[in-house]
TrEMBL record:
This is 2-C-methyl-D-erythritol 2,4-cyclodiphosphate synthase. SUPFAM superfamilies: IpsF-like. The gene is ispF. GO terms for biological process: isopentenyl diphosphate biosynthetic process, methylerythritol 4-phosphate pathway; terpenoid biosynthetic process. Its cofactor is a divalent metal cation. Binds 1 divalent metal cation per subunit. Pfam families: YgbB (PF02542). It catalyses: 4-CDP-2-C-methyl-D-erythritol 2-phosphate = 2-C-methyl-D-erythritol 2,4-cyclic diphosphate + CMP. Homotrimer. GO terms for molecular function: 2-C-methyl-D-erythritol 2,4-cyclodiphosphate synthase activity; metal ion binding.
């Protein structure tokens, strides 16, 4: 019988002026950007966490410490590629992933096709395996005040 496993990821990054805004592997034009040790791509980080969680392989910070200067400003696509290698070494393939980005501004719907194309290439999967959704929080909380961005992701992985 095939082994199917599910995973879940959650992450938050501050939004501040003077920082680049990387999301889903692409750079968005916005007056604020995401703050982190890496490029702070919150969507990629939750995908990594959901994949690692599904494989019972800890989390992104365990593999790529935010205290390690090696990862300062790193492109999160490099981390995602490594996470795919880690789970594939254990014999897993991605079934599908479903994600939600919580962001008051800007609207990201127009950018979702570009994110899917980019992530599918990095992960070496089909775009149809990747779902990206977005919601505001109706001006409530840290997302609503535009102080931060959060994201959630679930994954299904399996051994073919
Ligand atoms: N940053 C965002 C947030 C939302 N969207 C899209 O708008 C729809 C309505 O948002 P609500 O928070 O009012 O539910 C949502 O379903 C998304 O399609 C977006 O593109 N970017
Ligand atoms: C990606 C890493 C490593 O550079 O740093 P951050 O960009 O701070 O991201 P976070 O999701 O807070 O923690 C994971 C870290 O391993």
């Amino acid at each position: 019988m095939n082994t199917f496993r599910i995973g879940f990821g959650y992450d938050v990054h501050q939004l501040k002026e003077g920082y680049e805004f990387w999301l889903g592997g692409i750079k968005l034009a916005h007056e604020k950007g995401a703050v982190g040790h890496s490029d702070a791509d919150v969507l990629i980080h939750v995908i990594c966490d959901a994949l690692l969680g599904a494989a019972n392989m800890r989390d992104i910070g365990y593999h790529f410490s935010d205290k390690d200067p090696k990862y300062k400003g790193i492109d999160s696509k490099i981390l995602l590629r490594e996470v795919m290698e880690l789970i594939r070494k254990e014999g897993y393939e991605l079934g599908n992933l479903d994600s939600t980005i919580c962001l008051q501004n800007p609207k990201i719907n127009p950018h979702i096709p570009g994110m899917k194309t980019c992530l599918a290439k990095v992960m070496n999967v089909a775009e149809s395996q990747i779902s990206i959704k977005a919601t505001t929080t109706e001006w409530l909380g840290f997302v609503g005040r535009e102080e931060g961005i959060s994201a959630y992701c679930t994954t299904l992985i399996f051994k073919p």
